[in-house]
Each structure stands twice: as C-alpha cells, then as structure tokens.
C-alpha cells in the first residue's frame, strides 16, 4: 500500500466515523449516556471521565502489533453531556526488503513497534534495530511530505519547509 492509498482509506474511514458519530447522537445515545454515567458512579466520579472508543486498525499477525488507522472517542462529561473526539493516523511509506509498506508515522515498518524518528533524530528502531537509509528507506510521494504531511509547495524544489529533502540518501524513490 502506498501512502496515497493509505490516505484514501482514511477518507473512507472518515465516513465510517461520521456514521458512528451520528449513531451516538441518535436515540441510542441515551443508552450510551446511561451506561457511561453508571461507570462513572462506580468510580470516584470527580476523578474519572468514562469513554467509549471505537478504533479501526490492522493487526500484523506475525509481529502481534497493530497499526491504528482511525478512532472515535465518546466521553461523558461532568455535566452529563457526551462529547466526541476523533482522529486518524499520519501515514509514512517505507521500502523494507524490496517491499513497499505504509504505516503510521510513529511506527516501525519492520517490527511495527513504536519508532518516532524525525529529521533531527534518526536513531535506530528500539524494537528491531533497523536504521533509516540502511534496512529501511522512506518512500516519498511527489506531492506530500512524509514528515510534516504538508503539500509540496513547488515541484522544482527538493526541500520541504520542514527540512525534509526529497533527494536525501534515505529516500528510496518518489512514487
Ligand atoms: Zn522496528
Ligand atoms: Zn515537510
């Protein structure tokens, strides 16, 4: 999957999240509200905020780690009202052993554990030891920066405003 395909999947998940959101705002909402109120009452009510979270993701079977794609959280506020927050992953594409794989930008494409690299700190993955430019390469799209997710302002420039260089030695190829 390319980063662009990942993004179009997120668009579909946006619709799903919208449907779920509407479901929570409908009659069923009352039940959710009552249930969360009960959860809250069982704890020290002033200390907790109960919530329901729905998450769409994939489990990488062999690694037993997940890529979280999209989530919606409905929380029960002190005043008895429900409020919803949601979000989705920022994709980053990598080439690993000749294969293209897109994961979220805080994740290793080899072991799928947490790996927070940025342009100034490109330490090896703490889970499996892979390094950018060695075992894994960034696969950058023509028009979206894999680090800041901003659109490329100018095709003729190979430098993003965040400092990412489309021609860096750890960039595999531009798709
Ligand atoms: Zn790793
Ligand atoms: Zn950038």
| SS-derived structural category | alpha+beta
How much of the sequence lies in strands comes to 25-35%
Global geometry: elongated
Distance between the termini: 11 Å
- The value of Rg in angstroms is 20 Å
Helix content: 10-25%
Which parts are unreliable, with pLDDT below 50 for 5 consecutive residues or more? none
How many beta-strand elements? 7
Strand order of the largest sheet: 5-4-6-7
Helix-strand sequence: HHEEEEEEE
Mean pLDDT score, rounded?
89
Number of domains: 2
Task: Please write out the topology.
Elements: H1 3-25, H2 28-42, E1 51-60, E2 65-76, E3 82-88, E4 91-96, E5 99-104, E6 136-140, E7 171-174
Parallel strand pairs: 6-7
Antiparallel strand pairs: 1-2, 2-3, 4-5, 4-6
One zinc ion binds at residues 145, 147-148, 150, 160, 162, 164.
Structural summary, described in words:
The chain folds into two domains: 3-88, no CATH class; 90-175, no CATH class. Helices cover 22% and strands 29% of the residues. It has helices at 3-25, 28-42; strands at residues 51-60, 65-76, 82-88, 91-96, 99-104, 136-140, 171-174. Strand 2 and strand 3 form a beta hairpin. The model has no long low-confidence stretch (mean pLDDT 89). One zinc ion binds at residues 145, 147-148, 150, 160, 162, 164.
């Amino acid at each position: 999957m390319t980063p662009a395909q990942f993004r179009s999947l997120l668009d579909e998940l946006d619709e799903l999240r919208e449907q779920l959101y509407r479901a929570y705002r409908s009659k069923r909402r009352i039940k959710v509200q009552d249930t969360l109120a009960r959860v809250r009452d069982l704890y020290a009510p002033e200390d907790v905020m109960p919530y329901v979270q729905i998450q769409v993701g994939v489990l990488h079977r062999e690694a037993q780690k997940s890529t979280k794609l999209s989530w919606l959280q409905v929380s029960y506020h002190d005043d008895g009202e429900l409020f919803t927050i949601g979000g989705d992953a920022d994709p980053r594409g990598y080439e690993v052993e000749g294969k293209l794989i897109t994961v979220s930008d805080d994740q290793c494409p080899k072991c799928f554990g947490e790996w927070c690299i940025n342009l100034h700190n490109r330490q090896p993955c703490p889970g499996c030891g892979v390094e950018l430019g060695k075992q894994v390469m960034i696969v950058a799209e023509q028009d979206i920066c894999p680090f800041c997710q901003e659109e490329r302002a100018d095709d003729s420039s190979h430098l993003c405003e965040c400092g990412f260089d489309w021609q860096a030695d750890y960039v595999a190829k531009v798709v």
